[in-house]
TrEMBL record, chains A, B:
Pfam families: SCO4226-like. The lineage of its organism: Bacteria, Bacillati, Actinomycetota, Actinomycetes, Kitasatosporales. This is SCO4226 family nickel-binding protein. It comes from the Bacteria. InterPro entries: SCO4226, SCO4226-like.
Amino acid sequence: MTKFMDVHHGMKGITAEQLEAVHNADLEQGKAEGVHFEHTWADPETGTVFCLSESPSAAAVRRVHERAGHAADEIHRVRLGL
Amino acid sequence: MTKFMDVHHGMKGITAEQLEAVHNADLEQGKAEGVHFEHTWADPETGTVFCLSESPSAAAVRRVHERAGHAADEIHRVRLGL
C-alpha cells in the first residue's frame, strides 16, 4: 500500500455538503479496490480538491474516482511524506 | 488561522533527506510569520511536492517558502476539509 495525492480541478464553489458527498462516494467505491481515502481538502475559490489515499496503485485510485462520478485530473504517488 | 495547501512543481528526484531539509527550513522560517507546516508529501517521479499548513494568510505562506529558498507554484486556501 502506498499513499497517493490526487487533484481535481474545476470544482469552483464546492460546498461542505458537496465535499462530504464526494468523499463518502469515494469511501464507498474504494472498498472494492482496497483504496482508503484518508483526507480531502477543497479550495472553493480556485475549485481545487486534493484527496490523500492509501491504495494498491494509481490505477485503483483512478477507477474509484471514475466510478464515484468525479475523475481525478492528476494522481501523484507521494512516496515521501513528513 | 486557515489551512492552506501549496504545491511545488519541478522537484523531480527529490530524496527523503532533501524533503526533510526543505520541511525543516519551512518550519524554521514559519515561526516569524505564525505559519505552521503540518505535513508535506512528495512524488519524486513527477517532481510534485504538497505542503499543508496553518497560516494567517496565503501571503504569509508565500513569504515563508520564498525565504526558505523554494517558492511555491500554487497556494490554495483549503477552507473545507474532511
